[in-house]
Amino acid sequence: MTIIIRPGIREDLFDVFVVFQLALHGLYQSVGQAAPEDKPNPQDLSPAFKYFRMFTEYFTQTAEHFWVAEDDGEIVGFSRSMVRENIRQLSELFVHPDKQAQGVGKRLLEAAFPSDDAHNRVVIGTSDVHAVIRYLKSGVKFRFTIYDWSRKPEIIPFETDLSIEPFTPTPDNLAILNSIDQIILGYTREIDHIWLSKNRHGHFYRRRGQVVGYSYVSHRAGPIAMLYNNDFHTALAHVESEMTKYVDDVWENMCIPVPMTNTAAVEYVLQRGFQTSPLLEHFMSDKPLGQYENYIFMDPPFIT
Predict the structure, then answer these.
(1) Average pLDDT by stretches of 10, the chain with 304 residues
(2) CA 18, CA 10: separation in Å to the nearest integer?
(3) DSSP per residue over 11-80, as a string?
């Protein structure tokens, strides 16, 4: 059958989720972390989709591009990208395992991730070798690797000269968040902070009245941004302690995607006995960007 590429619509979101789950299973199977018999059954994925819906609907609403690959009426792949300030980010590109190595991913990438002089482009890609090569051929360059660390959270006593306070997305607080992002990420993304504040609890970290960082926490952690790398020991102890409030039968672990250039965060997860997944992510961009040694990505790391 001829595979067509068409714009995605809201009614496609469950089928897109099925492709994502099947592709993820294929990745875990490739590194020996999943068995063939564990392959997700689409009819059993509705409960998991209820949680994933908050992400996929938000990405659809704010996407620059959303494309699906269709084979005889069945969605077999999708890609989505967004623009924040002058940064084009490929948030997702997944292809059904049975349709990989057939040029589908290449077509979806070209549709959602065009190259032009107006934007610096960013990809957080999986460790799949074929995907990484495809991204590099599109023009982006490797910058650093992200490891996903996890453990069951505990209340961690800590001493700090920082004051910690919750925040809401008021105009003044959004201006503070924008100023920190401009320094650490190299661009602002106010729309994402408004969405994050609706779905997670935000905290500022102040030193002598000056905000030096922020974090978000709920059942999932991040992002976390600190102007000074050494302050990550405090921020992570605080986030881990806060996450004990949200442990349940579905989300029992704290997961944090850490750039391996973030030395203080790496020290923390090693000292606390976090375990890392064999699946890594690679951060790639057209041009150098930000100070990611002062950052931890949101879990899951679909966007920066």
Answers:
(1) 92 96 90 79 89 91 97 96 94 93 94 88 91 94 97 96 98 98 97 96 98 96 97 98 87 93 98 93 96 95 81
(2) 14
(3) GGHHHHHHHHHHHHHHHHHHTTSS-GGGPPPGGG-HHHHHHHHHHHHHHHHH-SEEEEEEETTEEEEEEE
Contacts of residue 133, defined as CB under 8 A and 6 or more positions apart, other chains included, come to none
CATH number of 150-276: 3.40.630.30
C-alpha–C-alpha distance, residues 73 and 250, integer Å? 33
Q: Report how far residue 69's alpha carbon sits from residue 6's, in angstroms, rounded to the nearest whole number.
A: 7
Cβ atoms < 10 Å from Cβ of 266: 17
Query: Is 83 exposed, middle or buried (CB count within 10 Å of its CB: 0-12, 13-18, 19+)?
Result: middle
H or E element at residue 258: strand 254-259
pLDDT for the residue 1: 59
Closest CA relative to residue 87, chosen from 192, 186, 178: 186
**Residue 121: predicted pLDDT:** 96
Model pTM? 0.94
Closest to 243 (Cα-Cα) out of 166, 160, 152, 162? 152
150-276 has the same fold as 3-139: yes
Beta strands 120-126 and 87-95: pairing type?
parallel
pLDDT of residue 9: 96
Angle, nearest 10°, between helix axes 190-199 and 171-184? 120
Residues in the chain: 304
Please give the CATH number for the structural domain made up of 3-139: 3.40.630.30
Give me the residue spans of the domains in the chain: 3-139, 150-276
